């Protein structure tokens, strides 16, 4: 049977009413082709332009190696000057990524280059976008965003392959307890169903982004991303109106994260081993019960 991947809905443009009824209300992803074509960034945001405006600041880099159980979440693997990194990803494949980078801190004029899609919904954190850069072949592990925001993810200067899974599949995806990511021992592109049987029958959505495409990811959706070219993206975040979602976000960011950090600090590898065993146990139970229904 395998993982059941359906192609994502793709539209050129969309009205507020259609967006609300088809995607925001049912919390379903969609790619909007023309949204970023209205932005100055659509023409301006080349690799050379980013080097010019951001400058030679040193940035943390991440790779796809398994997380160190004793390290805090989002601990970097290396550091490099931003301009050198941009040269690297234009020249050759690399596993190194820039993750959750805030270029506005170094280049506030970038704020003038994009427009939050307020004609579709409210709740945007306009001055706090996140940018992500990756070399050809680099992978962002399967996870959902800890703040539970809706995300408009726009890609530039290349292609990106994305797999998306509704939050309801979290146990079957082997979610690590007290974390927002999945067990890192399987390859979601080519999973071993004998070793990870709970993945068999999971339903998801497949997406390919090109320059200027915007992916709407509703709150809680799991996502795995692979850079098919050296390229970059910007994520604009918007809060869901639901107070339950807001409370879940606050819990994740405060109580759960603090507890996880304390346990990592005190118990290191033994704590991580317990979490991985629990992820497998919960996935097996969900599979036996036929979840999600």
TrEMBL record:
Pfam families: Cupin_8 (PF13621). InterPro entries: Cupin_8, JmjC_dom. Residues 91-257 form the JmjC domain. PANTHER family: HYPOXIA-INDUCIBLE FACTOR 1 ALPHA INHIBITOR-RELATED, HYPOXIA-INDUCIBLE FACTOR 1-ALPHA INHIBITOR. This is Cupin-like domain-containing protein. It comes from Chryseobacterium phosphatilyticum.
């Amino acid at each position: 049977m395998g993982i059941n991947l359906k192609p994502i809905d793709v539209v050129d443009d969309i009205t507020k009413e259609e967006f609300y009824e088809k995607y925001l209300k049912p919390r379903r992803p969609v790619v909007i082709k023309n949204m970023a074509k209205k932005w100055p960034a659509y023409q301006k945001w080349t690799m050379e332009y980013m080097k010019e405006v951001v400058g030679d600041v040193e940035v943390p880099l991440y790779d796809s190696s398994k997380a160190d159980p004793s390290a805090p979440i989002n601990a970097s693997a290396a550091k490099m000057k931003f301009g050198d990194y941009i040269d690297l990803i234009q020249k050759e494949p690399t596993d190194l990524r820039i993750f959750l980078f805030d270029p506005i801190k170094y280049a506030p004029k970038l704020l003038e280059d994009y427009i939050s899609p307020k004609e579709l919904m409210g709740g945007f954190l306009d001055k706090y976008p996140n940018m992500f850069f990756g070399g050809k072949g680099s992978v962002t592990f399967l996870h959902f965003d800890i703040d539970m925001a809706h995300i408009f993810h726009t890609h530039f200067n290349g292609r990106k392959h994305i797999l998306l899974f509704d939050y309801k599949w979290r146990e079957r995806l082997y979610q690590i307890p007290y974390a927002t990511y999945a067990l890192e021992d399987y390859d979601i592109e080519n999973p071993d169903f004998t070793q990870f049987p709970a993945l068999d029958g999971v339903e998801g959505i497949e997406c390919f982004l090109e320059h200027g495409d915007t992916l709407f990811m509703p709150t809680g959706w799991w996502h795995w991303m692979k850079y098919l070219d050296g390229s970059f993206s910007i994520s604009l975040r918007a809060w869901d109106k639901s107070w339950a979602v807001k409370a879940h976000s606050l819990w994740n960011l405060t109580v759960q994260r603090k507890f996880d950090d304390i346990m990592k600090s005190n118990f290191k590898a033994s704590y991580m081993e317990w979490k991985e065993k629990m992820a497998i146990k919960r996935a097996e139970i969900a599979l036996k019960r036929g979840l999600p229904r």
